[in-house]
Design a protein that fits this description.
It holds the Pfam family Aldo_ket_red. The structure is a single chain. By secondary structure, the protein is α/β, with parallel strands linked by helices. Helix content is about 35%, strand content about 15%. It has one domain: Alpha-Beta Barrel (TIM Barrel). Helix 2 packs across helix 4.
Length: about 325
């Protein structure tokens, strides 16, 4: 396992972290005992960074991770979780409507989520707390930051971060330029390449750590999908909604093209995609989801110190695809 410095901190984090969304049960049926075993197997093999959120199964992912942490006693695991914005039915969280950060993250709500996360995770301090959605007026209206700094002084959190909405990396540019937070989490993969243009360079200047998510584009970039794959997902599987209509067919066509481009360089598209997610020097950690020990092994195998092929990186530039399937 290779380790990278987490922004301007002294943390050395595994470049492959553990994304915990799937542990909450949103992506199909999960077995909690298997999830704990998978987490412990990842920890045993050098993973020391795990990312979760209250929103992942209303705290279920946090509770599962808490069980694994309770059984683990062999070294530091950095735990990152997130504060979901308050869901006020009278006001839209649609970013195009410029929602207010003050309304979305009031003091009492931030404290309530943090206290709940501490209990669910079974820890005395959260290593990294992140806002699960960023509203750009937070640059000016900084009550959210004042509250988090208070919690920091109280010893309940260590570092502060922000998770940007999908396909909106430039939303975090001012945040990166000012260095207001310790980390920024953003979607980045072979399709969603935009963060390399401005967000990554600006974050690097201020020592803001970059966490990249969805390296395999919710499974599409594993290269294992076939025409009938969508029919094999349970009705309540989030992917059935995401890839409705013509979305699945279009995605599959684009994936086949990427397969052909990557074949001369890497044995599988999944390996190429994971290596690609780590190639920018600004990236501190990537957080793929892992359901079992085999997936842990496949993900960790690419952390071998070998950089992504520069020629292929240039070849892939024209194949950007800005898409949002979580709506």
């Amino acid at each position: 396992m290779e380790y990278r410095t987490f922004g301007r901190s002294d943390w050395k984090v595994s470049e492959i972290g553990f994304g915990g969304w799937q542990l909450g049960g949103t992506w199909g049926k999960v077995d909690d005992n298997n999830s704990v075993e998978t987490l412990l197997y990842a920890f045993e093999n050098g993973v020391n960074f795990v990312d979760t959120a209250f929103a992942y199964g209303n705290g279920h992912s946090e509770r599962v991770i808490g069980k694994a942490l309770n059984e683990w006693g062999s070294g530091k695991i950095y735990v990152a979780t997130k504060i979901t914005p308050i869901m006020d039915k009278g006001k839209s969280l649609n970013l195009d409507n410029n929602p207010s950060i003050k309304d979305s993250y009031p003091n009492w709500h931030i404290r309530e989520i943090v206290e709940g996360s501490l209990k669910r995770l079974g820890v005395e301090q959260i290593d990294l707390i992140q806002l699960h959605l960023w509203f750009e007026d937070g640059i000016i209206n900084q009550e959210w930051l004042e509250t988090l700094n208070e919690l920091k002084k109280e010893g309940k959190i260590n570092k502060i971060g922000v998770s940007l909405a999908d396909i909106r990396p430039n939303q975090g540019l001012e945040l990166a330029k000012k260095g207001l937070v310790d980390s920024i989490q953003v979607l980045f993969n072979m399709f969603e390449q935009e963060p390399v243009d401005s967000l990554f360079p600006e974050s690097y200047k201020t020592g803001t750590a970059i966490i990249t998510r969805v390296p395999l584009d919710s499974g599409a970039l594993t290269g294992t999908w076939a025409e009938n794959t969508i029919t094999q997902w349970a009705e309540n599987d989030k992917r059935r909604l995401m890839y409705r209509g013509n979305r699945f067919k279009e995605t599959l066509e684009r994936v086949e093209k990427l397969k052909s481009l990557c074949k001369p360089f890497y044995p599988t598209l999944a390996e190429a995609a994971l290596r690609y997610s780590l190639y920018p020097k600004e990236v501190a950690v990537v957080i793929p989801g892992m359901r079992n020990k085999r997936e842990v092994e496949l993900n960790l195998a690419i952390s071998d110190g070998n950089n992504f092929n520069n020629e292929l990186a240039e070849i892939l530039r024209p194949y950007r695809w800005k898409h949002e399937f979580y709506n």
